[in-house]
Amino acid sequence: ISLDLCEIFRQFGEAYFRQQESKTINEILEAKQASILATGGGAILNPQTCSKLQQHSYVVFLDATPSTLYA
Questions:
Q1: Under a CB-based contact definition with an 8 Å cutoff, are residues 8 and 17 in contact?
Q2: How far apart are CA 71 and CA 11, in angstroms?
Q3: What are phi and psi of 57, to 5 degrees?
Q4: 3-state DSSP of the chain
Q5: Are the C-beta atoms of 61 and 53 separated by less than 8 Å?
Q6: Closest CA to 39 of 20, 27, 21, 55
Q7: How far apart are CA 32 and CA 47, in angstroms?
């Protein structure tokens, strides 16, 4: 069953989403395949996930205004 982000938050809460997000990021990093992983800003709020990303990948922070993003 596929749920969108709002539905996951509504049914299971943010903590569940963040746990699954962290698990998925770890699985991707452990696969050691060349990848581009685009996360939302919340992914780095988990100290373990942030640390793992910094240790095993290049982290790029894109900073833009909403008007630039929606142009």
A1: yes
A2: 33
A3: -160, 175
A4: CCCCHHHHHHHHCHHHHHHHHHHHHHHHHHCCCCCCCCCCHHHHHCHHHHHHHHHHCCCCCCCCCHHHHCC
A5: no
A6: 21
A7: 21
Q: Which of 50, 43, 51 is nearest to 18 (CA)?
A: 43
- pTM of whole model > 0.85? no
pLDDT for the residue numbered 32: 87
Q: For 19-47, how does the pLDDT look when each residue is reduced to its tens digit (9 = 90+)?
A: 999 999 999 999 988 888 888 888 988 99
Is 33:7 a contact under the CB 8 Å cutoff?
A: no
